[in-house]
Amino acid sequence: MARELRFKDLTLDLERPRIMGIVNVTPDSFSDGGRYADREGAAAHARSLVEAGADILDVGGESTRPGATEVPVQEELDRVIPAVEAVAGLGVPVSVDTRKAAVMREAVAAGATLINDVSALEHDPDSVSAAVELDVPVCLMHMQGTPETMQDDPRYEDVVSEVKTYLAKRMEHCQQAGIKADNILVDPGIGFGKTVEHNLALMHALENFAELGRPLLVGTSRKSLTGKLFDRAVHERTYFDAALVAWSVTHGADIVRVHDVQAMYDVVRMTELLKRGRRP
């Protein structure tokens, strides 16, 4: 049976890796804060991502960079909903990157067809119910702590085992609550409550998360992992990102979440060709 991800009116074939393009509508994102914060800017940026090869657009209105504080619900809605409305007609699924049930509900009403929650639906007690009600795919990501505290002193006995166990338990909880198994994706949460060593261990063991049996999303784009390892500024990390994306695709990622879609599109296509050993 073909592997696929079903959205409300679209189906995404996962027989080849897919690219999630990032549309930040925040003034304080670590990478591109403020550049696409208005409706027109978000729409123009999203169009350019789709033209460059993005298969999914991920719209976020709350920065989850290390140290970030929570954004009030109405402020996040004011950022996200106009952007979702502006990009929902571009012919690709639209994801809403949020921890809040109210934002999930209004974003789906505005055209979003995927929920991407860095707290794996734990931050807001109403999030699981919202996901059941909305009946759209949801990505469960691992994070130790909160964005405000996650990098203070992250500790694990065995980071790979603990992250995998956490995701398995969240999958089970969500399914017991009524979320369909086919609607669940998983993300090990590179950079979210992890040291450089933790992140490297997770990247080295990506196949472990593919074993969970659900689509695997990996987000490494422009993160501090490469900045700390090689002392490069955020916008000097493209080639490191390319290596991380190629590794992710080689080791089981179904979806890679990236800023630089045009470059990573080429990386993904070439890596997939090498994996298959033949032309697609």
UniProtKB/TrEMBL annotation:
Pathway: Cofactor biosynthesis; tetrahydrofolate biosynthesis; 7,8-dihydrofolate from 2-amino-4-hydroxy-6-hydroxymethyl-7,8-dihydropteridine diphosphate and 4-aminobenzoate: step 1/2
Top enzyme category: transferase
Key words of the record: Folate biosynthesis, Magnesium, Metal-binding, Transferase
Gene3D superfamilies named among the record's database cross-references: Dihydropteroate synthase-like
EC id: 2.5.1.15
InterPro entries in UniProt: DHP_synth-like (IPR045031), DHP_synth_dom (IPR006390), Dihydropteroate_synth-like_sf (IPR011005), Pterin-binding_dom (IPR000489)
Family matches, as Pfam families: Pterin_bind (PF00809)
Taxonomic superkingdom: Bacteria
Reaction(s) the record says it catalyses: (7,8-dihydropterin-6-yl)methyl diphosphate + 4-aminobenzoate = 7,8-dihydropteroate + diphosphate
Function summary: Catalyzes the condensation of para-aminobenzoate (pABA) with 6-hydroxymethyl-7,8-dihydropterin diphosphate (DHPt-PP) to form 7,8-dihydropteroate (H2Pte), the immediate precursor of folate derivatives.
Family: Belongs to the DHPS family.
The protein's name: Dihydropteroate synthase
UniProt organism field: Thiohalorhabdus methylotrophus
